[in-house]
Amino acid sequence: MRYLPLTPADRIAMLAKIGADTVDDLFIDVPEAARLAGPIEGLPAHASEMAVERHMSALAAKNVSAGSAPFFLGAGAYRHHVPASVDHLIQRGEFLTAYTPYQPEIAQGTLQVLFEFQTQVARLFGTDIANASMYDGSTACWEAILMAARVTRRGRSVLSGGLHPHYGEVVRTMAKFTQDDIISLPAKMVAEADDAAVIAAIDDKTSCVVVQYPDVMGRIPDLAAIAEAAHAKGALLVVVVTEPVALGLIEAPGVLGADIVVGEGQSIGVGLQFGGPYLGLFGCREKFVRQMPGRLCGETVDVEGKRGFVLTLSTREQHIRREKATSNICTNSGLCALAFSIHLTLLGGEGLARLAGINHARAQATFERLTRISGVSLMNDAYFNEATLILPRDAREVVRELADRKVLGGVSLGRLFPQGEGLRNGLLVAATETTTDEDIEAFALELEAVLEGASA
Amino acid sequence: MSDINAGGWRPSMGEAGDAKFTTSSGDYGLMLEEALSFELGSPDKCGVDLDPADRAPVAGLGKFLRKAAPGLPGLTEPETVRHYTRLSRQNYAIDLGPFPLGSCTMKHNPRLNEKMARLPGFADVHPMQPQKTIEGALEVIEQLADWLITLTGMASVAMSPKAGAHGELCGLLCIRAALDARGEKRDVVLVPESAHGTNPATAAFAGFKVESIPATPEGRVDVAALKAKLGPNVAGVMITNPNTCGLFEPDMKEIGDAVHAAGGYVYCDGANFNAIVGKVRPGDLGVDAMHINLHKTFSTPHGGGGPGAGPVVLSEALAPFAPLPFVTRGADGSIHLVEEENASEGHAQAFGRMVAFHGQMGMFTRALTYILSHGADGLRQVAEDAVLNANYVLRSCEDLLPAPFADSGPCMHEALFSDAGLAEGFTTLDIAKGLIDEGFHPMTVYFPLVVKGAMLVEPTETESKAGLDRFIGSLRSLAQRAKAGDQSLHSAPHFAPRRRLDETLAARKPVLVWKGEPGVPGTPSLSEIGGS
């Protein structure tokens, strides 16, 4: 077995040192009835690297990868070009195979990266501070709601109808058990985000309003107006960003008055990976720092006065506070945070702005072409790199038929909101810098054919 | 550090070889310092070639446009590669030596795992593609699920939790949902005092009250105390097995039977499943739910603190409540994705959703690759070698470092020592920091809380005997120095990229972000600390 360094002679010598006859003598605390006599039956034995590679490659080949077809999916996970150096650097063993930086003297690499990451996230979001990352955007969203409740000492949250439905489901699932009061506004297929409905739902019991920016249908809410309304009633504005590349083009939520900004960092550096591991981003006002969930990295000095970094404020965390912790979270997404940080370092502020401009331009080209198809119209007034098309029939079927024609043509609102009313004909379409003119033309021709009822 | 070489050579630097010798750069041969990316880069630098957009923003976007590009420094590719490569060299890693963090478990990360996870068919697939374009991905999830179910002897598995603590939450929410379905309100969860901090935190997060169960002098759960607490208000117990003292809980079945008889459920913290994989099936011990940390038992990389992945195996009693989405295999062998859209068809009791999309797919491909490489026989050998290595460390050091539970028999995957018997003023911390100077990562320290000055050493199965002998040699040497009162240990580490860091300062006035102007060297945030 190529991963097990002990030789049979080593095992004999070590058992002699221990004073045991066989290795099974080391398992004597396990009740005899529960001890398995040999390898579990019905499972295959060990396999060579070549054999495993063959097995896994065959499974991978059953998937249609995004790069192998015209591809227009978004809905909280975006396909961007990741520079080759990002993946090379995260595979350096000193990053890849390090554990949580519990011993800061020999983990300054990880810790400095986290400090740089926190600074990048805070600057991107326009917040004072940010943490060292969460599991993903959806769990960060729920943690933000809990944090808002701790800060305001109120228990009612308002979710915009433009919040990603998976995020909404995570929140409602968790709130069911914690008894938090969640008001979920309905998703509607209209040109503008539901700012007015969100503002109307705020009262003096509201802990926070949760608004996605851009929202799940690609619309852009007016955060400044919502922030003002929320603050007037003593509530916090929680903003969710699932496409951080957008912040290269549109104003940072913190600048517009958001109190807590959370997001999904996948689109910078991480890749699609069928949904995970992803990267939860979490930024907020500095005055809330002791109510924050998750790991924080802070600057300090060593005994010689040299600048260094440590995990800090751990008195908020489960390993110290146990049942009184701000969250049960233990792991962050260190490696994904590293990938995000490297990609953003390669881009820089102006590079990000340029990338965002390209994304928006590719989306414009996509929607200009697709709305020339008879019966297809654009729902949004404003959008970044994703918007909702209104089709003449149920978009779920259209997506499946497009797949038969080797086009990955977006995400249907019917799949995102199975209970939603009046959304069936909505198709969420995203474009990025990876979208070519040929992709757009192929999508348009196949969509036209599908809508005309041609058979594949 | 950016300001170190500002003054050039100074007479106070001393002669080479003398203790005060310094270099003008602040670097010492291959020991390299590195400034922050914010001090090195500038916002107008870019390591990605991007042509300007070919059209102006749509009119509707006008009022939303940002006024200035974000103040983020950029670096070209060579500068970026150098920055992160230099930083990487300030990290200890399993690739450099053993990482004997008890109960955290850091074993070798096979590189085939990395290669497989990067196949475009896995890495470049969107979670919401139509099902017929992702059948291979669903099959990976199903195959891994099948292995986990078989290895644990359980009925089902919830794959989506993002990490161990998230898996704990999933298991407890299944218990809540099952109790709700029975129409019972039970609000207490019993947790042994030796448990990981995540256990009580998770129980509280899930809305339960936590009651603590004491440990016996032998380092096990006090079964009598546990039974005395059982009653109509107890939803369940959370037991770590093997436990955080590195010991198997021999009364697990008896505990499970008693909890079930009282109407509760048994949650098992499976952090230490690596000690028993292929040797014992938790399903045979009355467990209702157990999370498996894929990085601990199945070698997925932990990348400096995550990502994790925490699938939860479930008993028949809890299986119907598993969260969405999940993958099922029909009688005809076909694989189906169950999510909100179709959950009402036979899965109406699912308690909801814990994450967007499907969980840690990139970890699933790695874990499945690891499992297929080992097979049923290899996984059994993994547990045996892990336990053998731990007992070898235990018996090689117990004459110098007290091992509180060693008299009661062998340990499982980790050896537990205490700092009793060191010279006055010497503690676990001195041993740990001394290990850094010896070129090793320290063990887990001051955990579990039930042992004073705990040192929890988990070598894992991927250490060779020669490697263990070197580690043991260092640990013994440090124990002897600490017993002899060697003062130099108090100032260890002497040879790491940093000496002991001031954690009190970091917490008293937190500096969590860099506040300077990009591209301008200096550390204004530090001077703020100094002023406090």
From TrEMBL, chain A:
The EC number(s) this enzyme carries: 1.4.4.2
Keywords carried by this UniProt record: Oxidoreductase
Taxonomic classification: Bacteria, Pseudomonadati, Pseudomonadota, Alphaproteobacteria, Sphingomonadales
Domain annotation Glycine cleavage system P-protein N-terminal: ranges: 1-443
Record's subunit section: The glycine cleavage system is composed of four proteins: P, T, L and H. In this organism, the P 'protein' is a heterodimer of two subunits.
PANTHER family: GLYCINE CLEAVAGE SYSTEM P-PROTEIN, GLYCINE DEHYDROGENASE (DECARBOXYLATING)
Enzyme class (EC, first level): oxidoreductase
HAMAP family attached to this UniProt entry: GcvPA (MF_00712)
Species for this entry: Novosphingobium barchaimii LL02
Family the entry assigns: Belongs to the GcvP family. N-terminal subunit subfamily.
Family annotation (NCBIfam families): PRK00451.1
Functional note: The glycine cleavage system catalyzes the degradation of glycine. The P protein binds the alpha-amino group of glycine through its pyridoxal phosphate cofactor; CO(2) is released and the remaining methylamine moiety is then transferred to the lipoamide cofactor of the H protein.
GO biological process terms on file: glycine decarboxylation via glycine cleavage system; nucleoside metabolic process
Protein name as catalogued: Probable glycine dehydrogenase (decarboxylating) subunit 1
Molecular function terms from GO: glycine dehydrogenase (decarboxylating) activity
Enzymatic reactions: N(6)-[(R)-lipoyl]-L-lysyl-[glycine-cleavage complex H protein] + glycine + H(+) = N(6)-[(R)-S(8)-aminomethyldihydrolipoyl]-L-lysyl-[glycine-cleavage complex H protein] + CO2
InterPro entries linked to this entry: GcvPA, GDC-P_N, PyrdxlP-dep_Trfase, PyrdxlP-dep_Trfase_major, PyrdxlP-dep_Trfase_small
Domain of life: Bacteria
Keyword Oxidoreductase found: yes
From TrEMBL, chain B:
Segments forming domain Glycine dehydrogenase C-terminal: 384-483
Keyword Oxidoreductase: yes
Catalyzed reactions per annotation: N(6)-[(R)-lipoyl]-L-lysyl-[glycine-cleavage complex H protein] + glycine + H(+) = N(6)-[(R)-S(8)-aminomethyldihydrolipoyl]-L-lysyl-[glycine-cleavage complex H protein] + CO2
Gene Ontology biological process terms in this record: glycine decarboxylation via glycine cleavage system
EC code(s) of this entry: 1.4.4.2
Keywords: Oxidoreductase, Pyridoxal phosphate
Pfam family, one: GcvP2_C
Official protein name in the record: glycine dehydrogenase (aminomethyl-transferring)
Organism taxonomic ancestry: Bacteria, Pseudomonadati, Pseudomonadota, Alphaproteobacteria, Sphingomonadales
